[in-house]
Amino acid sequence: MDRRTVLRAGAGAGLAAGLWGSAGRATAAARPVALKDRDWAGLKQLLGGRLYFPGDPGFAALNLPANHLYSHRLPAAIACPRSHEDVLGTVEWAGRNAIGVVPRSGGHSYAGYSTSDGGLLVHLGGMRDVTVKGTTLTAGAGARLLDVHAALQGTDLLLPGGYCPDIGVSGLVLGGGIGPATRSHGLTCDSLTATTVVTGDAYTARCHENSNADLFWACRGGAGGNFGINTSFTFDLHRVPKATAWFDLSWDWKDAAPALKRLAELIADPRHRKDLTCRFGLRTSGERRVCAQGLFFGSEETLRKLVALLRPRRSRTGTAGIRECMHRLHETSSGDPYVSSSIVSGQELGASVADELVDSLSNWKPASPASRATVTFFAMGGADTALRPADTAYVHRDAAFVVDLAAYWADTDPTPVSDGNRLRLRALYRVLSKSLGTDAYQNFPDPGLTNWQSAYYGKNYAKLQTVKRTVDPARLFSYPQGIVPAP
Ligand SMILES: Cc1cc2nc3c(=O)[nH]c(=O)nc-3n(C[C@H](O)[C@H](O)[C@H](O)COP(=O)(O)OP(=O)(O)OC[C@H]3O[C@@H](n4cnc5c(N)ncnc54)[C@H](O)[C@@H]3O)c2cc1C
Q1: Cα dihedral 282, 288, 289, 294 sign
Q2: 3-class DSSP state for residue 343?
Q3: What's the structural domain count of the chain?
Q4: The domain boundary residue, chosen from 222, 240, 258
Q5: SS3 for 435?
Q6: Are residues 44 and 102 in the same domain?
């Protein structure tokens, strides 16, 4: 038996019958271990004391997710590893003690999938190291995009990431990763060259094209929380010009539908599929507006001509180093509770959809001062289409754009406000999905989606199930839309 087989036989023995059933609850076949009988002292010693229980100082702050809708979730304990060895020891311990494990990096899961009720939350915030050697970047499990930006400061090197600097590199890359350089340089996961994973069966898998190749495939779009805990990620960086053009545009609400149509035409223009990436959207908060921001890998003069065709009410363009450009496009999480849905569409955004969308949002009257809806389109269809759907677990290689629909309210708003927002978002999703389809982006998960297996993963779901069976047959890692092992 090789080391892998030995570890599987050992760590999996008590769990092989399945710690979790397909509905995500403990099965009768599981080997239950009462909370008090778990060897917490052993885990605390292993972690040098960095283990927190409800009520401990620091527990509440560590437990708070970015989406406050899930802030009531209470894990049995929070483990804070500082190294790969700490993570390996923690996962081995969890297998022996039959407790589900939930990793958290940046904590930005829309659906609260890095929260836990009664399980062991593994908070990776102590593993934020980012190192750069030549054109290779290595990020620890807890690194956030802002750590990547800091490590690349002063260079002309780019890791294609997302728009929000607070999000974790882990969650972003494991689910794909779309952002302001997607059409020019591909998804975040397309730049991943290697990753180290402590798998659900407590094995250290060093993954790249020629080693643990199926798990490596799964780590490029198969979403976080499914196979184990990735402790480090290695990326190839892209050298970009010393100066890049950026833009930030907006339109008054009365011009919303024509603005959407013009933006849709521009992103569909084959001449600009690789040099222009943007996101554009509508917001019902404050003054209703349509906004668009993005990067253009060409001259500012050409960009201004393109912007003129869009006829925005307000426009700002500029040329800057890539770091400043990213900074200009940043958005951060408000912390308010929200619900969201996403659609990945291969179709162009037609005139009738733009009209329907503007109609629906025009009728969206806020139920409280903090209530608001946002609809954001992320332009796709450039370098992200260079790979085929089966080349990585990220299946949406034919997408023209990804739509993110969200409804927010305040922590203090009464239930009728949140319930009303949920219903209205569902209605808006129904309207849009009729025209744009029901594929969805796994990094914008919607817990209400029933066909999530095909929506997030399409034909790749079966292979993901096979990988899951190999590395985490007992489902130590499990959540409501988590990959279920192949039978
Ligand atoms: C304000 C905001 C802006 C965003 N902008 C973008 C954007 O521009 N582009 C884009 O593509 N997405 C964007 N997202 C979505 C984002 O990519 C996902 O929410 C992503 O999962 C966040 O990663 P995280 O590490 O912060 O989240 P977490 O909540 O910590 O983790 C997400 C999932 O991954 C698991 N996980 C975390 N760390 C690990 C690990 N080391 N190993 C294995 N599993 C792990 C968790 O258990 C959970 O299931 C945005 C989200 C928000 C809230």
Answers
A1: negative
A2: strand
A3: 3
A4: 240
A5: helix
A6: yes
Rounded to 10°, the helix 322-329/145-152 angle is: 160
* Cα 78 to ligand 1 centroid, rounded to whole Å: 19
Q: Looking at residue 411, what is its pLDDT? A: 93
Which of the listed residues 88, 148, 164, 401 should we mutate to test ligand 1's pocket, taking the one with most ligand atoms within 8 A of CB?
164
Structure-block tokens of residue 62: 């560590």
Cβ burial 66-94 (10 Å sphere, 16+ → b, else e): bbbbbbebebbbbbbbbebebbbbbbbbb
In short, whether 334's Cβ falls inside 6 Å of ligand 1 is: no
Res. 38: pLDDT tops 90: no
The reply to whether 264 and 383 lie within a common domain is yes
* Residue identifier of the C-alpha nearest atom 9 of ligand 1: 162
Ligand 1 pocket, residue 168 CB under 6 Å: yes
Where do we find the tokens 């898998």? 205
Does residue 307's CB lie within 6 angstroms of at least one atom of ligand 1?
no
In a domain, 331, yes or no: no
Q: In a mutational test of the pocket of ligand 1, which residue from 167, 464, 471 has the highest number of ligand atoms less than 8 Å from its CB?
A: 167
Of ligand 1's listed atoms, the one at least distance from the Cα of 279 is 8
Question: Taking the model in full, what pTM does it have?
Answer: 0.93
Residues 209-235 have a mean pLDDT of: 98
Average pLDDT, the chain: 91
- Going by pLDDT thresholds of 50, 70 and 90, the confidence category of residue 88 is very high
Do 221 and 291 share a structural domain?
no
Range of the domain at 374: 244-320+336-449
432/359 same-domain check: yes
Do 90 and 190 belong together in one domain? Answer: no
* Tens of pLDDT, residues 385-443: 999 999 999 999 999 999 999 999 999 999 999 999 999 999 999 999 999 999 999 99
- Any domain includes 330: no
pLDDT digits 0-9 by tens, 360-370: 999 888 889 99
